[in-house]
Amino acid sequence: MTIFDLFNFGKLFLDQALLGNIFRLYNIANNCYINSGIQLLMSSEHFRTKLLLFNKEDDLLLFLKKCTKDIVNKRDIDYIINYYINNSTQTIKYNEKGDTSAFLLFLLNDLEEKYNMIANMTGFIAKSILCSQCGARNEVLENNLLYSISCSELQNIEDCCKNEPINDSICQFCRNTPLMMTQIVSINILLIIHLTDSNYEQIFHIKETLHINQKLYSMKSIVYFRDLPDSGHYFDVVRQNNKWFLISDSFINQIKSPFEIDKKSRPEILLYEQIMQDL
Fold first, then answer.
1. Where is the USP domain (predicted)?
2. What are the CA-CA distances from residue 56 to residues 44, 63, 186, 269 (Å)?
3. Would you list the domain boundaries of the chain?
């Protein structure tokens, strides 16, 4: 029996008093992609703590603070989708399907533009355009809010580097196809990774801890996508007190491993948080 077979017997709810920051989000409009993005961010203790330190009386900030306080007070949350439909600058509608990575990037950008909150929690990447033929090089430093990589590159994430040809571009000096090299220059507290071409087998390349730039990072949560016959569903696996919980909207179940998942599901987004101790 898989985790999802349990749905056939009705939803099983754990005593929320035992779950700390593990909480239910109600899916009232087919918007599981919003719930899974919120669950991912709220799994970070640093994110929740920093959120509560902001004093601006802004709709988005007040909304997220309310979520955080309700989580601490172990209250169920049923207002997230209503908020985003009524207040978001992004077009979100009832019963409209969406993508968690796109929603998460929208939310991160919103928090960064309004409060300068995200960039100093994540870090910087350097993008270098290099022509292997003539050696011409151009480098740009960018804030890293969401780091998108392929699954093959995930295996080498601790090397902090990926290379790919830019097929729709040519070197302005020798007219050859240049190579773009992307390297993580620095990561602060959070590393959020979007897997661009994942499948179930890729979970075996995912590590629960990473050593990057002399710092240790621990996995806090994973967003999975499950293929269904005519649609799909997003859900999260979240770490709490060294235990793992599968959270699918308002359904919560403890599991043995973050990879104890139905084979029709694939990992899409990973969140790591720095363990505050240099190696």
1. 23-275
2. 21, 12, 28, 29
3. 13-274
Distances (CA, A) of 57 to 18, 133, 141, 251: 32, 54, 32, 32
Distance, in Å, from the CA atom of 37 to the CA atom of 22, rounded to the nearest integer, reads: 14
Q: Which residues contact residue 128 at a Cβ distance below 8 angstroms, ignoring those fewer than 6 apart?
A: 137, 138, 139, 140, 180, 181, 182, 183
Parallel, antiparallel, or unpaired for β 190-195 and 147-149? parallel
CA dihedral 170, 176, 177, 181 (to 10 degrees): -100
Other beta carbons less than 10 A from residue 206's beta carbon = 20
Question: d(Cα 145, Cα 142) in Å, to the nearest integer?
Answer: 9
Amino acid occupying residue 215 = K
Closest C-alpha to 227, from 254, 178, 267, 278: 267
Region at 189 (left for phi over 0; alpha for psi -120 to 50; beta for the rest): alpha
Asked whether the beta carbons of 235 and 248 are under 8 A apart, the reply is yes
Sole residue written with tokens 């403890």? 254
Angle, alpha carbons 279-218-206 (nearest 5°): 115
Q: Are 194 and 128 in contact (CB under 8 A)?
A: no
22 CA to centre of own chain:
16
User: What fold does the segment set 13-274 form as a domain?
Assistant: Cathepsin B; Chain A (3.90.70)
pTM above 0.90, yes or no: no
Model pLDDT for residues 220-246, shown as the tens digit of each residue? 999 999 987 777 899 999 998 889 999
Q: Report the C-alpha gap between 22 and 29 in whole angstroms.
A: 22
